[in-house]
């Protein structure tokens, strides 16, 4: 198996976790299968850089002395807001030579500025998707996914999404066992699929202020197959249905029904991606009751029925 060089670009104002998260994944894969990866870091002049959190990172050397890598990884951070023309020029000249272009968070802004994302589907941190799309109309920005693969270009959302993407790349380069070993060592999920939304239901909605409503939110997440009608949830919160519905909407920013719908959809997606359970079993476990009810929910929210969703997004075993 050929050794793959992973070159990580460093610059002042870089987000430290955008660098160290993927690096820990590739380093773990190298420990699992020695000779797989050669990991290098480089800044423009080879000098140490100060991250957005104040941490100082010492690169292995200057970009000028770096050999063309298999994987060129560009992290994000505050330093991407004002691109260094010299760094942009280096990326424009050397990016096309890499076998695989990877960005984490707002690193996509640097790649786009160098013209390396033209005609590509990409993502970035949710708060910068609109800016990226506005500044680079030739780039198709998808604001929802954790990461997006388009040919040899792979872009991810913020911070921890870089770990998800790196694990997916390790699974592609080696195998699922290697990625699983690394994930266990880092105590993270093996694979948060790229199509998964940057926000889960719990993150997309606000956390309720009052304990009874927070308890209801937790209950919904842990018991998607239970009776989650407004009446049942109101009884759990010890409120009248009308008072409960109004308070839930006011404190979370969404209605109980929409919250339940999103939790059930996420639960069903995880089961389809990570288990071999049949569609009927998944529909019952996720609170849909029947495969037809789940099919309607998938088509409405995702534009694809459950069986097709599983075919597209469940990894090969």
UniProtKB/TrEMBL annotation:
Top-level taxonomic group: Bacteria
Matching InterPro entries: Class_I_gatase-like, DJ-1/PfpI, Homeodomain-like_sf, HTH_AraC, INH-QAR
Keywords for the protein's UniProt record, in alphabetical order: Transcription, Transcription regulation
SUPFAM superfamilies: Class I glutamine amidotransferase-like, Homeodomain-like
Domain HTH araC/xylS-type: 214-312
Transmembrane segments: none
One term of GO molecular function: sequence-specific DNA binding
A Pfam family reported for this protein in Swiss-Prot or TrEMBL: HTH_18
Family annotation (PANTHER family): ARAC-FAMILY TRANSCRIPTIONAL REGULATOR, HTH-TYPE TRANSCRIPTIONAL REGULATOR RV1931C
Protein name: AraC family transcriptional regulator
